[in-house]
Amino acid sequence: MTDQADPRTEQGGYTTARNRPRPLGERRQWPRSFAGRLTGPLPGFLELAQAGRPVFRPRADPAQVAALPYDPAPLPAVGTGTVAITWVGHASWVIRLGGLTVLTDPVWSRRILATPPRLTPPGVPWRDLPAVDAVVISHNHYDHLDLPTLRRLPPRTALFVPAGLARWCRRRGFTCVTELDWWESAQLGGVSFDFVPAHHWSKRTLTDTCRTLWGGWVLTGPDGHRVYFAGDTGYGHWFTEIGRRHPGIDVALLPIGAYAPRNLLRTVHTDPEEAVRACLDVGARAMAPMHWATFLLAGEPPLEPLARVRAAWQATGRPRTDLWDLPVGGSRVLTGP
After folding, report:
1. What rounded mean pLDDT belongs to the chain?
2. Contact yes or no for 326/288 (Cβ under 8 A)
3. Which long-range contacts (CB under 8 A, 24 or more apart) does 38-44 make?
4. 3-class secondary structure for the chain?
5. At a CB cut-off of 8 Å and minimum separation 6, what does 63 contact?
6. Which CATH superfamily is domain 83-330 in?
7. What's the rounded Cα separation, in Å, for the pair 60 and 40?
8. Which of 9, 69, 182, 320 has an alpha carbon 20 to 30 Å from 309's alpha carbon atom?
9. Is residue 174's pLDDT more than 50?
10. Which of 124, 93, 85, 92 is CA-nearest to residue 333?
11. Could you tell me if residue 180 is left (phi over 0), alpha (psi between -120 and 50 degrees) or otherwise beta?
């Protein structure tokens, strides 16, 4: 049995929150295109070609690459009421809450299509991972949806993906795939997986632009702890709405890299200052930067995102301890209410 998704609502044509979680593994039908969800113009062919020129992706300064923060350590112990996050690199995290181990946009590959090799190794060796209960995917770009990494997982691993992407996953052998529209949720083991909007787009081949949706995830544990994983996004109005619908976010995992040149990337990637503003918009208690120090995807120097996010955070006057600027492989543990 299939469910015909209705993308129309009273809020500008976007799907509103629904009271009941969607069934796990539900098979659904979707519109042919999600281009109507775009909040900014997509780069054209000439702009993409220009962005790929060496002048915009210069060779990384070896001294800066050597100084990138990389400090792998054993995963911290977790108990009842404990939330732990560990940065693997780029947009890949190990999140443990509510008794589950969840991976976000897992990329353990040394390199991805049309991208230079990793600057830093994965912060958690694959062999050191506990059993993975679930994976959340933000969108289908190659640096966020990495098939070689996904193939390391058992086929029964629960995958939570954007609308339109389940078919791709099922064709590759995964049997528990749940696809959601914006503002929809599903539950696994007492943890709520809520799919929320992002200012981005999707494309994996020459002919599938915006055929699948894109977004971020709010994970809520049985004790009410909340982690917001923004995925890949530019800055815009959705952050305030996410915070309104999901109050009490404990930590926001927000992208701070791949932002230069701004005239090409402003609509799809936040810079460090915009990421700090997004954290304030969603009302998160703490911010953990990501989407830098792993792949050289744009024109900024490798260490610049860290310096800028620290300065932007200081300018807010918020406690320095609430900026979780982790090294690749670093962890933070959240306990208590």
Report:
1. 91
2. yes
3. 38/201, 38/210, 39/199, 39/234, 39/236, 39/237, 39/238, 39/267, 40/199, 40/234, 40/236, 40/266, 40/267, 40/268, 41/267, 42/201, 42/209, 43/264
4. CCEECCCCCCCCCCCCCCCCCCCCCCCEECCCCCHHHCCCCCCCHHHHHHHCCCCCCCCCCHHHHHHCCECCCCCCCCCCCCEEEEEEECCEEEEEECCEEEEECCCCCCCCCCCCCCCCCCCCCHHHCCCCCEEECCCCCCCCCCHHHHCCCCCCCEEEEECCCHHHHHHCCCCCEEEECCCCEEEECCEEEEEECCECCCCCCCCCCCCCCCCEEEEECCCCCEEEECCCCECCCHHHHHHHHCCCCCEEEEECCCCCCHHHHCCCCCCHHHHHHHHHHHCCCEEEEECCCCCCCCCCCCCHHHHHHHHHHHHHCCCHHHECCCCECCEEEECCC
5. none
6. Ribonuclease Z/Hydroxyacylglutathione hydrolase-like (3.60.15.10)
7. 29
8. 182
9. yes
10. 85
11. beta
d(C-alpha 261, C-alpha 78), whole Å: 41
User: How buried is residue 176: exposed, middle or buried, by Cβ count under 10 Å (0-12/13-18/19+)?
Assistant: middle
Using DSSP bridges, classify how beta strands 28-29 and 83-89 pair: parallel, antiparallel or unpaired. unpaired
Q: Is the pLDDT reported for residue 19 higher than 70?
A: no
pLDDT of residue 51: 46
Residue 269, token pair as written in the block: 């990637």
Q: Using CA atoms, how far apart are residues 276 and 274, in angstroms rounded to an integer?
A: 5
